[in-house]
Design a protein that fits this description.
Elements: E1 4-8, H1 11-18, E2 26-29, H2 36-43, E3 50-55, H3 59-71, E4 76-79, H4 92-99
Parallel strand pairs: 1-2, 1-3, 3-4
């Protein structure tokens, strides 16, 4: 199993990131919210791994990021530019630049 985990908001974000990655990464979708059930099922089992967080540059994304910072204080936070807003609309070359410090990208 991969030892790197990338947390994103939705399936479209995952699809966009998969276009850039050149290594297997466990990508977890929160679908914008983090209930106690999701936390226990998806997030807590990966807290011992290398966890990266890439969410949208909007209010919902920032709220999710704050919650994840609390639950996963050792996670690495990655950011898209506010002008792109959402991960799924961020150009793949920009995403590659953001991800290449931590992941093998195409």
């Amino acid at each position: 199993m991969e030892d790197k985990v990338l947390i994103v908001e939705g399936k479209s974000d995952r699809t966009r990131i998969e276009q850039v990655l050149n290594e297997p990464v466990n990508i977890i979708c929160t679908y914008g919210t983090l209930s106690q059930e999701k936390l226990e099922e998806l997030i807590l089992p990966v807290e011992h791994m290398d966890v990266y967080i890439l969410v949208d540059a909007d209010d919902a994304g920032e709220n999710l990021r704050k919650q994840l910072k609390h639950e996963l204080p050792n996670a690495t936070h990655l950011y898209t530019d506010k002008m792109f807003g959402q991960v799924e609309t961020t150009p793949v070359d920009y995403l590659a630049e953001v991800l290449k410090a931590y992941f093998d990208v195409k």
